[in-house]
Amino acid sequence: MQPSAFHKLLLLLPLAYQHTSNDHKEESHWNYETNGQNWGGVCSAGERQSPISLNVQKSLIVPLPRIVFGNYDVKLRGPITLLNNGHTAHVEIPETANGNRPFITGGLLKGRYVAEAFHFHWGSPSSRGSEHSINQQRFDVEMHIVHRNAKYKDIDEAKNKKDGIAVIGVMLKIVKNPNRIFPGLSKVMGALPRVTKYKAKTTIPGGLSLGQMLGNLNPRDFFTYRGSLTTPLCEQAVTWTVFSQVLPVPYSSVSKFWKLRDSEGHRLINNFRDIQPRNGRPVFYRVGKDLSGAYLGK
Ligand SMILES: [Zn+2]
């Protein structure tokens, strides 16, 4: 039964008094000490939680449309702000210089999903920090670009809808001498030393398009499934698209994540949630390569 509006109001009142700032309740009072095992009180329980283990062998190989990136190649309107929110390094995505919003469609998605923000999950000098695993392997960093279904007015409304949110996941891996440096990623990671403290903010210098965050990623090869946000309240609103190509990044960039601090001044490391049960959910895999490993130019 739906609680009446009046009962909802009564439930919300104590929260309103506790949080005089405009903090969302999910932004407080949780941490990564047990990688999510103690989130029982703040996380919605359910059968479609994320992250999960992704395996080509256990996936349904289907001819899905490729992911289409709209306005990803257009420069974003500045200033672009990087924030240490105590849980991650977070960037709200502004509109593009010509007043549009970057968006994605394709894959399992119906309609357009507007880019809202991106952030990262990382490990420590002795552990890897990706949330999803691919063929039993975890990676040093996982970047998430969060999109909201254009038919909902904002991210808070979208979080409560089954088709509300689309997140793309991109794996980053430390490589000794990467033969390519991706300008977007290196600009953002280069700004990390200015946000080591909780709530510290800095501006990303120079122009940035969202596409620059993806380097030379092959958008045709990915896993996709229905799951949840990986931070409280873990709403089951997310269509995940996790690309199988891993982007190489230098150690000196990744090590900057490990210097961030959380709201209590502790090192903000290992900010990933543990793998969740798949519970029989279908995971789809779109093959973007032919057997020789060359990309199909479709
Ligand atoms: Zn995330």
From TrEMBL:
Cofactors, names only: Zn(2+)
Molecular function GO terms recorded: carbonate dehydratase activity; zinc ion binding
Residue intervals of the Alpha-carbonic anhydrase domain: 28-287
PROSITE patterns assigned: ALPHA_CA_1, ALPHA_CA_2
InterPro entries assigned to the protein according to its UniProt record, in alphabetical order: CA_dom (IPR001148), CA_dom_sf (IPR036398), Carbonic_anhydrase_a-class (IPR023561), Carbonic_anhydrase_a-class_CS (IPR018338)
Keywords: Lyase, Metal-binding, Signal, Zinc
Pfam families to which the protein is assigned, alphabetical: Carb_anhydrase (PF00194)
Enzyme class: lyase
SMART domains: Carb_anhydrase
Gene3D superfamilies (UniProt xref): Alpha carbonic anhydrase (3.10.200.10)
Enzyme Commission number(s) of this protein: 4.2.1.1
Catalytic reaction(s) noted: hydrogencarbonate + H(+) = CO2 + H2O
A single GO cellular-component term on record: cytoplasm
Signal peptide: 1-18
Domain of life: Eukaryota
PANTHER family the UniProt entry points to: CARBONIC ANHYDRASE
Function (record text): Reversible hydration of carbon dioxide.
Similarity-based family: Belongs to the alpha-carbonic anhydrase family.
Protein's UniProt name: Carbonic anhydrase
The organism's taxonomic lineage, starting at the top: Eukaryota, Metazoa, Ecdysozoa, Arthropoda, Hexapoda
Gene behind this protein: Dyak\GE10928
